[in-house]
């Protein structure tokens, strides 16, 4: 696309700008009666050849009053630098070096054009197969919860993971299980709000951590601690460990 | 600034009242542990909580006789469902029937 255009209408002006919102455009507002404009127009043309990445638009201010007004042009020559619709700079008067400086600053190299574009938001990451689909019915959630509770002999629903617990009670219960050589799998309820709320309802138990043995809720930290004290955990553990 | 734990907040008062009514306990001790949990991730997200989020309840009651620990805990959770739906995040529960209380005075 040509880098120098004489603008003849507001519509054309708009169209030229919208063709590439990434491209830098330099607008020269000039008038016939102003002597300095003749010189600056020449400068303008030279610059357009030297910096073809920029879109150089020449606008005769009196012929295009609407365009001139929209940029608050009060005197000619005036130069406006834009990227798309964003104002990058203004140069007032026949300031050749000032204009050259601005053009060099903004239009020296072609602007980066991304190789691809998308308007879509990134897809939601689903790390594992037990992750829910977009719309999960209560029945589907129920099934998923039971699946999670039965994924191994002993399942701990906790805040965080065994290596990084995010709650004192969760940390303690992990410690108890490990100290007593209980093999268990775990689920971080902080990663899944549906499971977090659903399991509380299903098991009629309002808190975490929750220890599930053979698909059934055994209790939380206090109960597990009591079971260890009373020796109750050992028979259960024996069933699991061997 | 550590809160004065001798001051009983409204949630703790409510817990005490409900458990007393429901379970006619022989003894009931409630302590507010919220201060110790104020910097856990979940509490930080809530700006530290309202100071009535974690409690320890020690309770001895005839109602617990013949019931498993789990059943006892469920009784307490049922009595305090309102508080648990509100600011209370966690309860440490120690539940005993009167016979189960160790007699410390025996030499």
TrEMBL record, chain A:
Coiled coil regions in record: none
Family under the similarity heading: Belongs to the glutaredoxin family. Monothiol subfamily.
Protein name (Swiss-Prot/TrEMBL): Thioredoxin
GO biological process, one term: intracellular iron ion homeostasis
Keyword Metal-binding listed: yes
Sequence ranges assigned to domain Thioredoxin in this UniProt record: 1-150
Domain of life according to the entry: Eukaryota
Keyword line: Iron, Iron-sulfur, Metal-binding
GO MF term list: 2 iron, 2 sulfur cluster binding; disulfide oxidoreductase activity; metal ion binding
PANTHER family in the record: GLUTAREDOXIN FAMILY MEMBER, GLUTAREDOXIN-3
GO CC aspect terms: cytosol; nucleus
Known function: Monothiol glutaredoxin involved in the biogenesis of iron-sulfur clusters. Binds one iron-sulfur cluster per dimer. The iron-sulfur cluster is bound between subunits, and is complexed by a bound glutathione and a cysteine residue from each subunit.
Classification via Gene3D superfamilies: Glutaredoxin
Automatic annotation (TrEMBL), chain B:
Domain of life of the organism encoding this protein: Eukaryota
Gene3D superfamilies to which the protein is assigned, alphabetical: BolA-like (3.30.300.90)
One GO BP annotation of this record: [4Fe-4S] cluster assembly
A GO term from the CC aspect: mitochondrial matrix
Pfam families, per the entry: BolA
InterPro entries: BolA (IPR002634), BolA-like_sf (IPR036065)
PANTHER family in UniProt: BOLA-LIKE PROTEIN 1 (PTHR46230:SF7), PTHR46230
Family: Belongs to the BolA/IbaG family.
Protein name: Bola-like protein
Organism (species): Coprinellus micaceus (Glistening ink-cap mushroom)
């Amino acid at each position: 696309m040509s880098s120098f255009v004489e603008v003849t209408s507001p519509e054309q002006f708009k169209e030229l700008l919208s063709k590439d919102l990434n491209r830098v455009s330099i607008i020269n507002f000039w008038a016939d009666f102003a002597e300095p404009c003749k010189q600056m127009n020449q400068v303008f043309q030279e610059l357009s050849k030297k910096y073809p990445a920029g879109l150089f638009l020449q606008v005769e201010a009196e012929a295009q009053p609407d365009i001139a007004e929209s940029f608050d042009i009060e005197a000619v020559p005036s130069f406006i630098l834009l990227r798309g619709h964003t104002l990058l700079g203004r140069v007032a008067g026949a300031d050749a070096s000032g204009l050259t400086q601005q053009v060099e600053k903004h239009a020296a190299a072609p602007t980066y054009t991304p190789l691809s574009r998308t308007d879509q938001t990134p897809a939601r990451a689903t790390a594992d197969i037990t992750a829910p689909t977009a719309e999960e019915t209560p029945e589907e959630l129920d099934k998923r919860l039971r699946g999670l509770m039965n994924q191994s002999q002993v399942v701990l629903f906790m805040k965080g993971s065994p290596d990084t617990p995010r709650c004192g009670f969760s940390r303690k219960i992990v410690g108890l299980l490990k100290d007593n050589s209980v093999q268990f799998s775990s689920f971080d309820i902080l990663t899944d709000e549906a499971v977090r709320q659903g399991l509380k309802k299903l098991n009629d138990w309002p808190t975490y951590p929750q220890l599930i043995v053979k698909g059934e809720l055994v209790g939380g930290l206090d109960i597990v601690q009591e079971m260890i004290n009373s020796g109750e955990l050992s028979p259960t553990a024996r069933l699991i460990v061997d | 600034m550590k809160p004065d734990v001798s001051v009983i907040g409204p949630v703790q008062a409510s817990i005490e009242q409900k458990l007393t009514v429901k379970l006619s306990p022989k003894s009931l001790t409630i302590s507010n542990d919220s201060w110790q949990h104020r910097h856990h991730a979940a509490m930080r997200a809530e700006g530290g909580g309202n100071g009535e989020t974690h409690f320890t309840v020690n309770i001895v009651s005839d109602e617990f006789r013949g019931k498993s620990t789990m059943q006892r805990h469920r009784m307490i959770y049922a009595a305090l469902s309102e508080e648990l739906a509100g600011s209370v995040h966690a309860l440490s529960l120690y539940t005993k029937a009167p016979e189960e209380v160790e007699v410390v005075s025996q030499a």
